Amino acid sequence: MKQFKMLLLASMVILFTACGGGSSSPVDTIPITPDTPTSNNILPTANAGLDKSIEVYQVVAITGIGTDTDGTIVSYEWKKDTTVLATTASFNYILTAVGTDTLTLTVMDDDGGTASDSMNIIVTETAPDNQAPVSLTLVSVLNDDVKETSGLANVNGKIYTHNDSGGSNLLYEINASTGDVIRSITVNGTANVDWEDLACDDTHLYIADIGNNLGSRTDLKIYKILKSDLDANIMVNAEIISFSYADQSTFTYDPFTTPYDAEALITYNGQLYVFTKNWANHTSKVYSIPTVPGSYEVTSVGENVLDVMVTGAAIDGVKNSIALVGYTNPYDIDTAFKSMIVKLSAFTGDNFFSGRVAEYEIINSLIVGQVEAIIFNTASEFYLSAEGVTVLSVEYPAKLYKTEIIE
């Protein structure tokens, strides 16, 4: 017992000495570190899954697996480069650009051990869905005043068209059944450099002066006209929306090679959208433009490679469906000439190529002619116009057609 007391007293003396007892001597410290994987921890394994191939703007479900033979997985982290995409084993990922996305999964076990694995997503263009060919029914031969018909619009039950490059700054109301011109309307303060299409919203008609065969124009415009002014007048005023393509840096191209020609215009959710006509590879880009008069530099919101160059567009706002029309490059001697209707549906927002892309070749395309414009008459019926052409000194007049596509 005495030896125990002496040992206790000695221990207290050592303790007080170590603590300094008010001395100014430095205090000894022992660092405390976070828990680290124990040396006998078996590291987990990560499996990001197989590589995938998917079309642009589609949503893909991603699921990774983490396993730990001597514990449990406590965290998941998915990254693209340095960007964290999700902190769960599964998530939905939307592809917004063509190319290859590499996603990396990192898992951690309950002892702090980690493991990683990567997978690639190959992003391709939305492949057009080729449908059965469609035939066009002739509605009327159009008056020579609109031999170069290039746009169509239905405003309050009246059909309007116009001529393209070099034509007068006139809109024409036509009788669809006879092809006659009922009335011509001068659009004040405008010039028809290359009028190519018409589009409407609830209050206005828009004229697309966007034709650009040589890719050299720096004066692209859209004219905005009150629909109420069209009812009975022979002269109307227009506001001007000017724009340029933000990604265009070259304005010199060989004839019929530019990707910055355009002939198609729609309105959607308060914005204007131009579909380009690419002479080189049939890629059509979509550019969003405000409806407010002004000058804008516009960027592309989507693109797709089609089997034809786009020459006209229309939208059914009720069905959320878009119809494009176009033809193959007539100067490409390696490609047989054909015309097509392309229907876009089930798209998300203004990613018009994100849903179904259905192509309908027009039967007897050579006889039908150079189809330039399209409008919805009903949800399934369309009017199309083809401009007049001269082939081997033979004159072929402009025509108005109709067809029906039921899906």
Describe the structure.
It is a single chain. The chain has two domains: 45-124, Sandwich (Immunoglobulin-like); 129-404, TolB, C-terminal domain (Neuraminidase, 6 Propeller), CATH 2.120.10.30. Mean pLDDT is 88; it is low at 1-36. It has a five-stranded mixed beta sheet with strand order 2-9-8-5-6, with no helix packed on it. A five-stranded mixed beta sheet has the order 10-29-28-27-26, with no helix packed on it. A five-stranded mixed beta sheet has the order 12-13-14-15-19. The longest helix is centred in the N-terminal third of the chain and has 18 residues, at 2-19. It contains three helices and 34 strands. 34% of the residues are buried. With 407 residues, the chain is mainly beta.
